[in-house]
Design brief:
single chain; 569 residues; mainly alpha; 27 helices
Length: 569
Amino acid sequence: MNRIAILKSLICTVAFSLLTGAVPYVGIYSLFIAILLYWLFDSVKTDSSLSARLCSAVFGVFSFLHVFQVNVYEDVLAKYPAFGKAFVLVVIFAGVYLFAKTVLSYAYALMDKWTPGKRKLSPNILFVIFFELLILLYLPAWMMEFPGIVPPDTLDQIGQITSNVYINHHPFAHTMWLKLLLSFGTKMNVRVGIAGLLQLIINALVFALVIKTVYKKTGSLTASIVVFLFYGLMSFHAFYNVTLIKDTTHAALTCSLLMLLIGYFDERTAKRKNIYTALILLFSVLFCLFRTNGYYAFVVLILVSFVYAIKTRDFKLSAVMLIAIVLATIIKGPVYTSLGVSKASYAEALSVPAQQIAYVIKNGRYLTDEEIEMVGAIIEIGDIPQYYDYFLSDPIKHLMNNRGNISYLESHKLQYLLLWVKIGIRYPLDYLRAWVNQCSGFFTPHYYSTSIFWGVWNNELGITSAPLIGNEALIETLQDLAAQQHEIPLFGVLHYPAVSVWITVIMICYALRNRDEKSLVIIAPLFGIFLTLLLSCPYNLSFRYSYAITACLPLLIMYPLVKRRKKVA
């Protein structure tokens, strides 16, 4: 008997039981799991690379952070004294670390064995076929949701377009893009319907190009079909494509930017490198402008591009990135100001800090008179316990915007930064739990939400739901199937934002393991999006904020595999 494997299996079994709140109710199922884990640990040769250990440690941290959530804490940690809590966290970390390292070792071994195939079909023909098929698969969603899915954010943007009074709360660049899409037709319903159809076609075009890119790089028709099924059958793609929100457009832009970077790195496109460079500059600026967090996520790409430049002595790409961020800064600043575009409320950038201070107050913690006075200068403290929501920052932000003094906060930024730090030093556990409650949906799949919207919200703009499919029962059936797709075993896991983040982390570590700087550049924008969500996410359960990561998964998985094979060859 392998004693080390036995010990590992016991630690993992206890860790998983703790994570599910099953301890001390350990029975026959735990014994069955322990036996399977023993077989796993005894059979798989573990990868000893630093990147595999790093990746496993990340998953271990994700797992023990999971238990700090409001709906999990009481079941797992609250019942233990301080030493017991520390022991539980150590066991959870160790168990997940050991399990993740073993599974990753097996996965990396399979990935190392992968070899590209030889193309038997024309990539252009394949592109046309899949493009047309994707449109056919997406059209029913457009017809049943005609003129489109129009949530409150979009109604606000359309209201700005009709009134010609703009605010950069929702990115002004996307509002202008929406204005362009709405420029066809006379009646508002028809204009929105055409805009939704155009967006559907554009996204189908981008996804078909992704399929083409995968086929060109891998030579595998099977891989291309799998990617097609991912874009064609996952319900959130179809319904996001007819939802006129910034997240859908930004996902298409992110896919496009990644494909351009892949083209830039391809030795066979050396003669067209200047064209790729110009397009990378354009799409980099758009990436920064079409989502507020895109601007900050792009900083990660800049940093990684500098590492690539130092390693390869190719400084052109990092120079383009710097030019892009400078242009985006100028556009978001002086250009928008000259166009009369108002800035968004400062409270919009404070989702996490505001939630942390509000959580401290909700818990009735002691604050000094000076701290109470400072908080009270911008928000009524007595209202906070009533309005605070563990997973959503909007109630506190609305309280600050509608009944607070945001201008005072903006003129005393440094003082409030120091206030936030002082309270956090005194109540670190409250800050940690408030942050986990706010952001954990992006690193732990404890909750499900694809945030698929339906229909048209109430409005005075003349936009009304008018399905082109007249059978209401059929529409309800299709909506139910789409909304419940996450319940399908294995197939539904991609409806959880955390799964896409896990895949991102795995591929980053795989690229590090193979010293693959180009793959790290490709992945950097996606990792940047994840980091910005950890710093400023307004809602724990919103899939749409990380939709760009999920939409880019085929490129994210494919490119590091291709680059590794080329290095080996």
